[in-house]
Write the structure tokens for this entry.
Amino acid sequence: MVIDVNYSSWDTSRKFGATWLLHTELGRVRAIAEGQTLYRQGDVHDSFFLVRSGFLHTIVHGTNGGVLLLEIFGPDAIFGEASAFVGEPRYVTARAVTPAVVSEYRVSELLPVLATEPALAVSLIQLLGIKHRILIGKLLRATSASPRERLEGLLGRIAAGSEETRSLRLTHEQLASMTGLSRVTVTRTLKAIAADGLISTRGKGVEIRDIERLRERLELF
């Protein structure tokens, strides 16, 4: 099974994101340019987000100057809710890896809504609980995923998404940013994955060729 160290929160929040997608009257929709920072480590504000299209990642800047790739978020993922509700500084920086569209929700504006829509409140409580449970496992697995596992993990989750998501042709540089690998390692690993017929690397970006096999390798379906 592919190790899902960077995708746990994306996988987890998909089923909760559906509830929020139905409430189009809530929040505001924002278009985020590739490379744009949504919020920075240390920021304090009461917003959290739901990804409607595109991909974002969160990174942690260490005191020694190192950077840790913590999470990758794709369509239907909810993120940023913990700091938004407790009013504490953000412990990560969130940045768009591709052009993205997100819904932004302000806790101060949502509180009256949550009182009358308990399903929304319950979905956030469940999401927070599950994220905390997976954190320890994520830390334990952080160094065990091979480059191929990381890339197949990302590509498999893209294959599991909508047709619009699957049609995205991510570049080697974007894939490197989303998996915490060097561009050289990504290029070498993609060649091996392409040799198995799962993807095509011809032209601009990577094209998914065998959706079902990538899904099977994730054991998500």
Summary: DSSP finds nine helices and ten strands in the chain. Residues 1-5 have pLDDT under 50 and may be disordered. The two ends are 12 Å apart (CA to CA).
